[in-house]
Amino acid sequence: MTLQICVAQLNFVVGDMAGNARKIIDCAREAYARGARLVLTPELSICGYAAEDLFLRPAFIDACDDALKTIATELAGLKGLHVVVGHPEGGGLRTRSVAVTRRHNRASVLCEGRVVAHYDKRELPNYQVFDERRYFVPGDAACVFTVEGVRVGLLICEDAWFAAPARRAAAAGADLLAVINASPF
Fold first, then answer.
1. pLDDT in tens, 64-104
2. What is the bridge-based pairing of β-strands 104-111 and 114-120?
3. What's the CATH number for 5-180?
4. Which residues are annotated as catalytic?
């Protein structure tokens, strides 16, 4: 069997969680109708990549959580469809100039109305316009999930630049690596 994958390269707007969620839902429905069973959205797709200090606002994170729930609920009836959605996750208060404790740059795997797996970005860039260490803490676990018999390992952006995250996914049984990414332009 061949796994059909949709790479959802959409124009996400920073801070428009409801609008970004609608784009993901519409794209996923169309992809499913065309036979895709795995949809990959970009890194931080729910809120837009360059949200900067908005990541420090609890209400912003809550709105991202609500948007993720909306996507899961609206796509619940599409049997076997797995949608990878990038979003910030977690909270706690920021202490001085270090990252908010327990906040991650996360990719959640949605299927039939629920989160079935998630991956927290490990390699957080901290140069030029990329200041992820200010907002996030690194993850340390592999994520492998199965779609139509294919074991998919998940990475986020700069994780693919280093061997360790891919090795962890392979050791966890991944047949295929899916890497979601977003870069400002």
1. 999 999 999 999 999 999 999 999 998 765 555 555 568 99
2. antiparallel
3. 3.60.110.10
4. 43, 121, 157
